[in-house]
């Protein structure tokens, strides 16, 4: 198991994940990132989530991958 962190950012700032989650592999990390993204999108707010990105990093702060919210929402027309 590896501890990874799911930081979320847009052009105005970054939400830092201070706790992270233990995952077994990259597929599990990607699934968890998608779950976090879905939770944020479904929370009632006026936020336009298309500008947001989840940055998945390891214990050393090295980014493993990022996942833009547009992967789930699509791009505006």
Characterise this structure.
The protein has about 80 residues and is of the alpha+beta class. It has one domain (about 1-75). It has helices spanning about 25-40, 70-75; strands at about 1-10, 15, 20-25, 55, 65-70. Strands 1, 2, 3, 4 and 5 form a five-stranded antiparallel β-sheet that branches. β1 (about 1-10) and β2 form a beta hairpin. The longest helix has 17 residues, at about 25-40. It is globular. It starts with a strand and ends with a helix. The mean pLDDT is about 95.
Approximate strand percentage: 25-35%
Biggest β-sheet, characterized? 5 strands, antiparallel
- Tally the structural domains: 1
The helix-and-strand class reads alpha+beta
Number of DSSP E strands: 5
Shape: globular
Helix content range? 25-40%
Assembly state: single chain
Whole-angstrom Rg: 12 Å
Low-pLDDT stretches:
none
Q: How widely separated are the two ends?
A: 41 Å
Task: Average the pLDDT over all residues and give the rounded result.
Answer: 93
Number of helices: 2
- The topology string of helices and strands comes to EEEHEEH
Summarize the structure.
By secondary structure, this protein is an alpha+beta fold.
Secondary structure elements and pairings:
Layout: E1 2-10, E2 13-15, E3 21-23, H1 26-42, E4 53-57, E5 63-68, H2 70-73
Antiparallel strand pairs: 1-2, 1-3, 1-4, 4-5
Protein name: DUF6894 domain-containing protein
Domain DUF6894: 5-70
């Amino acid at each position: 198991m590896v501890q990874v962190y799911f930081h979320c950012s847009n052009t105005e700032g970054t939400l830092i994940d201070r706790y992270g989650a233990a995952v077994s592999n990259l597929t599990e990390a990607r699934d968890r990132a998608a779950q976090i993204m879905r939770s944020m999108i479904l929370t009632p707010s006026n936020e336009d989530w298309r500008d947001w990105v989840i940055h998945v990093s390891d214990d050393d702060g090295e980014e493993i991958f990022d996942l833009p919210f547009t992967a789930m929402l699509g791009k505006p027309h």
